[in-house]
Specification:
- This protein has about 425 residues and is α+β, with helices and mostly antiparallel strands.
- The chain folds into three domains: about 10-165 and about 410-425, 2-Layer Sandwich (Nucleotidyltransferase, domain 5); about 175-220 and about 345-405, ATPase, nucleotide binding domain (Nucleotidyltransferase, domain 5, 2-Layer Sandwich), CATH 3.30.420.40; about 225-345, no CATH class.
- It is about 40% helix and about 20% strand.
- The protein has helices at about 55-65, 95-115, 135-150, 165-170, 220-235, 255-260, 270-275, 285-295, 300-320, 340-345, 345-365, 385-395, 405-420, 420-425; strands at about 10, 15-20, 30, 40, 45, 50-55, 70-75, 85-90, 95, 120-125, 155-160, 180-185, 190-200, 210-220, 320-325, 335, 375, 400.
- The strands form five sheets. Strands 1, 2, 3, 4, 10 and 11 form a six-stranded mixed beta sheet that branches. It has a five-stranded mixed beta sheet with strand order 14-13-12-17-18, with helices on both faces.
- Helix 5 packs across helix 9 (about 300-320) and helix 11 (about 345-365) packs across helix 12 (about 385-395).
Length: about 425
């Protein structure tokens, strides 16, 4: 007998994505999307050699192994931008970025179908508080574009829930008394905050709107931290901020693009390579220009960005400096990222994020000391300098780490299960 397809909870993330569903027992379970891993890097690689699309870790591995093709990451960051409808050359054809997002969502749906034994047609998808800061119309278009991509991926019914609220639903299962909790969701592209009342008695209510006291968000996340660390620690080794023989700095746009995940591929186009090659006369130390050309000629931009990201993660977990391996560019070349470097280089960005957390609490008319807990989800919430700054701004408040990569998806699945009858009635 064929299994009944569940309504999925989909956390489509800037850096990583996850899918969850609730079983007959009402327990939310994450779907193993790549081997045993319950997260799938939001990455697509269009292999020019076999004309196939690959996803997740496999996509990144193929690109870094030097297979000819096109790697695309941070697709979510394009939602709400003018680039979304533009077409780009992939695999010998032209596809819009929205169509590529649809391909990725279809892959999530297909992998989940293999796991549960049925093809899902309904989903609750997480969304940040703001896809686009201070522009409600562009924000509305971003959600509409994601809904259209989901429809193209095979979903007949799609609902949306704020990602921090989804995280709160997952956390609520562990709360033993009514609590006032600030949910902090630091993803790859956005930082979102929700001040919410949680408790065993409240979780039985179908409508939780009255439990949400305030929400806030800012378009800063893990990829912004990676870019800043890349610019400060790695790009100077290629000539960023280098002063040439005329006393002027080497133009900065190539380094800004080369440190931004979704723009790295532009730097490998023949036009951009020619333009950067012509910058050699702007260098007093031409060894730096040689390194830059090696990165472009050998398509090492994504490798460098990945090394920065991994060093950030290692340093955050260990509390010790971590090396950024740049030996692919030049033998023995490396940079170092540690807690001190992160605290210094990310000070402005982290300050803006924590300011947003404070604004969320003030919007509810409360003081920081009124909170029972701060609940963290999203991979970049593990950054030690970020947690240290939170403790300074919210002294004495318990900081609780949830499932940093799966909590939102599980909360979305719980939301889907609670809203299942209404979702069925709302077929579009």
């Amino acid at each position: 007998m064929r299994a009944e397809a569940p309504t999925l909870g989909i956390d489509f993330g800037t850096s990583n994505s996850a899918v969850s569903f609730t079983g007959a027992d009402g327990v939310a379970r994450l779907v193993p999307l790549e081997g045993t891993a319950t997260t799938l890097p939001t990455a697509v690689f269009f292999n020019a050699e076999d004309q196939r699309a690959y996803f997740g870790r496999e996509a990144i591995a193929l690109y870094l192994a030097g297979v000819e093709g096109r790697l695309m990451r941070s697709l979510k960051s394009l939602l709400g931008s003018s680039l979304l409808a533009e077409e780009t050359a992939v695999g010998g054809t032209m596809l819009s970025f929205q169509a590529i997002i649809a391909r990725f969502l279809a892959e999530l749906r297909a992998r989940t179908g293999k796991h549960v034994g049925a093809e899902a047609r309904r989903a609750v998808i997480g969304r940040p508080v703001h896809f686009v800061d201070d522009d409600p119309e562009r924000d509305r278009r971003a959600q509409a574009a994601l809904a259209q991509a989901a429809a193209s991926a095979g979903f007949d019914e799609v609902a949306f829930e704020l990602e921090p609220i989804a995280a709160a639903l997952d956390y609520e299962r562990r709360v033993t008394r009514e609590s006032l909790v600030l949910v902090v969701d630091i993803g790859g592209g956005t930082s979102d905050f929700t001040l919410v009342r949680l408790g065993p008695d409240r979780m039985r209510n179908a409508d939780r709107a009255s439990d949400v006291l305030a929400t806030a968000g800012v378009h800063i996340g893990g990829t912004d931290y990676d870019q800043k660390l890349n610019l400060r620690q790695v790009m100077p080794l290629l000539g960023f901020r280098h002063v040439g023989p005329t006393g002027r700095e080497v133009p900065s746009p190539p380094f800004l693009d080369l440190s931004s995940w979704h723009l790295i591929h532009w730097m490998t186009t023949p036009k951009m390579v020619r333009q950067v090659r012509q910058l050699r006369s702007d260098y007093a130390d031409t060894r730096l220009h040689d390194r830059l050309m090696t990165v472009l000629d050998q398509h090492l931009g994504h490798l460098l960005a990945s090394e920065v990201e991994q060093a950030k993660i290692r340093s955050s977990m260990s509390g010790q400096p971590a090396a950024v391996d740049l030996s692919a560019v030049e033998r023995g070349l490396h940079a170092v990222i540690g807690p001190d470097e992160m605290a210094r280089d990310l000070d402005s960005l982290l300050g803006q994020v924590v300011d947003c957390a404070g604004s969320c609490v003030r919007a509810a008319g409360l003081q920081p000391q009124a909170l029972d807990a701060i609940y963290l989800t999203g991979g970049s919430s593990a950054l030690r300098p970020f947690q240290a700054l939170l403790r300074q701004r919210f002294p004495g408040t318990a900081i609780v780490e949830g499932d940093l990569f799966g909590g939102v998806a599980m909360g979305l699945a719980l939301k889907a299960a609670a809203a299942a009858p209404a979702c069925t009635a709302a077929r579009s």
